[in-house]
Amino acid sequence: QANGTRISSNTLVKDGALAAEFIKSYSNGIILNERIECLAITQYQKDKNTPPIPEYNVKIKADVLIKEKETNLVLKTSINKNIFKNNEKMKIQTLASENSDIAIFFLGYDDKIYKLLPDLNQKVTINKNKKIEFPRKNKDEFELEVVLPDNLKKITEALWLIAAKSKDNVPFNIYFDKDVYSLNEFFSIYSKFSQKCAEVIIPYHVHK
Q1: Which residues, 6+ apart, have CB-to-CB distance to 179 below 8 Å?
Q2: In whole angstroms, what is the distance from residue 87 CA to residue 147 CA?
Q3: Which of 30, 26, 32 is nearest to 66 (CA)?
Q4: Cys-Cys link to 4, which of 64, 114, 147, 183 (CB 3.0-4.6 A)?
Q5: Are 159 and 77 in contact (CB under 8 A)?
Q6: Beta-strand runs (E) in 15-91
Q7: Mean pLDDT of 110-131
Q8: Which residues pair with 85 in a beta bridge?
Q9: What pLDDT, in 10s, does the model give residues 57-99?
């Protein structure tokens, strides 16, 4: 089965330096031609006290026909800040140009994708041009507390919000029936309906 790739990126800059670059890619096209090139073996050594390990490098060049988006949905999303101290609370505000169903994920520092909403048994719907804030008062039984792992001084993660017009009937709660996904798992699911979706990805930095 042939697949294509669409790539976009967002960057987070702190004190004039690039702190992180998140690249999201998902299959939604057709590979017309591909060429595989094996490159020279290199070595990686963390520091002088650890032995080097070989790195095997492969370059793949592909001619890809990308299918365009099938939606004109506009999604605007923001968070209360982009640089957090450990244990601070995050708030998410979002607005869509049409009545929409949404799903909210976090791309973790460990390269896993964590689902926040929707729950398995219900959709999360927002009304046209009406700004909504998450967590929702008297509705969501959670707080968005940004937590730094004990063994790290700083991390960079990203909020990922996906929306589809309600009339397109994209059942995020059925497609995403787990709480944690590897990147491959997530993209293999999302590629099935990504053309109908608008998405926003917002990196944020956490420090002690």
Answers
A1: 114, 115
A2: 5
A3: 30
A4: 64
A5: yes
A6: 17-26, 29-38, 42-44, 53-55, 58-66, 75-79, 83-85
A7: 92
A8: 207
A9: 878 777 766 667 889 999 999 999 999 999 999 999 999 999 9
Q: pTM of the entire structure?
A: 0.75
Cis peptide, bond prior to residue 171, ω within 30 of zero: no
Tokens of 14: 């702190």
Q: What is the DSSP string of 88-122?
A: PBP-EEEEESSSEEEEEEEE-TTSEEEEEE--TT-
From the number of C-beta atoms within 10 Å of its C-beta (0-12, 13-18, 19+), residue 196 rates as middle
Q: How far apart are CA 200 and CA 10, in angstroms?
A: 10
Q: Mean pLDDT, to the nearest integer, of 17-35?
A: 56
β-strand pairing of 100-107 with 83-85? unpaired
Q: What is the dihedral of CA 146, 147, 152, 153, to 10 degrees?
A: 50
The rounded distance, in Å, linking the Cα atoms of 76 and 54 is 44
CB 99 within 8 A of CB 166: yes
Token look-up 């999604």 returns: 75
- Name the residue with higher pLDDT: 167 or 187: 167
CA nearest neighbour of 103 among 145, 142, 144, 160: 160
CA pair distance 5, 102, nearest whole angstrom: 23
